[in-house]
Amino acid sequence: MNNTITKLSIALSLSAGLFFTQSCVQDDDYATPPIECNLPQANISLADLVTKATAGGIKLDANGAVAEELIVKAYVISSDETGNFYNTISLQDKVENPTTGIQIEIAGNNLFNNYPIGAQVQINLKGLIVATDRGVMKIGSVDPKFAVGRIPSTVISTYMVKTCEPIQAIKPKVVTSLADALKPANLNTLVTIEGIQFKQPEIDKTYGTATETVNRVLVDKKGRETDLRNSNFATWVGDALPNGSGAITVVVSKYNSTYQLFIRDTKDVKFDQARFTILPEGVEEIKGTKEDFESAKKNNYNVADLVLSTGTWIFSDGGVFDPSDSDLKTSGTSSVRLRGTSTADGFLQSKFFVTGLKTLKVKFGGATFSESTDADKEIKLEVLISTDFGVTWKSVGEKTSERGKLNSLEFPINAASTDRVSVKLVNKSFLRSNNNRLRVNIDDVEFVK
């Protein structure tokens, strides 16, 4: 340990000497720190540092600062060049596929000049605070007024230096939903979220205002929302919000229990696609093109969902029952049986949608269960469609069939190429005196685009 301390002291002395010899190169607050190549070896990973700091596993001095000779390396992923980050730098442990991120607090401006995105930095942690502050793990100075204070710009080079490793291209982690982005493991790391858009660009109009920091709400295809935080000091605060959808690259952060996202500049926003319609929970696109009702059973008439090969179907007063000789099947062992009453339709409804549906094909007929003297009455099926995920329905027609035989029926839909069509098949057969409709069977529903 003594040898490590000696090496560290020599390196820091060289760093201080270089600080003074290069003091003619100034930014707004402090001299450009040296780029160090002859540095002591880092002796703790960023992941281990965060784990130990969280668990109280680091030796601290009387001020709560690190009392051990701990040195960590990390990569810069944020920038204050355009004004959206202030007195802070976000760091992650790897160029790609990071496991841990952290935030270092520095009382200085134009930090990007000395610590650009992609730079590797080395931090001597002794004498600094490493702690969670308002939901985010941070490195900073001892300040009795704050959980984690800002390191004065005049001494930052005593603690953090840019190594001589060439600038790296940071590769963001790519996710396709806010649920995957807003996780503790992603805090202070660079993440690209695909399939996202601003919730109300026509109302918010710009990224922000000139008077205060504001939030602009982002929404993904599942309807989950989060805030994009935009400083009034950002150079692009008056730029128009894009109306489309696409991908956004962000530094993931948190304020207490609430996640919030930050961009470095508007180059991080690539909304070059048309806006999407937010899908209700559980609604998705069809899998395949034909349903034969062989993959699952529902042995009752209760209203319930059933997951089948094409997706989830809603059943009302109907099911896919265990094999019965009275149920008609085109092949296999299963088909749908629908009943219905005077007050509750027997229907089969797709919880999924089909984009641009042109024709619905279905095999339909009357089951051969005993229907007493009503057995020869009308067997009829109505098809309805919805393009707003079941909020409203429109009939596309009714067709008759016969008892004891599955006939092939076709219903023209002719939806637009962008319409997302859900279908509902309703038993409209004769209503018997016992208040139940004649039982019917449906099989082999085919969706033609």
Bin the strand percentage. 25-35%
Strand count: 29
Distance between the termini: 72 Å
How confident overall, as mean pLDDT? 92
Question: How large, in whole angstroms, is the Cα Rg?
Answer: 32 Å
Structure class: mainly beta
- Low-pLDDT runs of 5+ residues are 1-31
Figure out the total of helices.
5
Largest sheet: 9 strands, mixed
Oligomer: single chain
Residues in helix, %:
under 10%
Overall, the morphology is: elongated
Concise description?
The protein is mainly beta. It has helices spanning 2-21, 46-55, 156-159, 178-181, 201-204, and strands spanning 35-36, 71-76, 88-92, 101-107, 120-124, 129-133, 136-140, 151-152, 160-163, 173-175, 190-198, 214-220, 225-230, 245-255, 258-262, 269-273, 290-291, 304-308, 311-316, 318-319, 336-338, 347-350, 354-355, 359-366, 380-386, 394-400, 407-412, 420-427, 440-448.
Question: How would you sum up this structure, described in words?
Answer:
By secondary structure, this protein is mainly β. It is 9% helix and 35% strand. It contains five helices and 29 strands. The strands form four sheets. Strands 1, 2, 3, 4, 5, 6, 7, 8 and 9 form a nine-stranded mixed β-sheet that branches. A hairpin with a 2-residue loop joins strand 18 and strand 19. The longest helix has 20 residues, at 2-21.
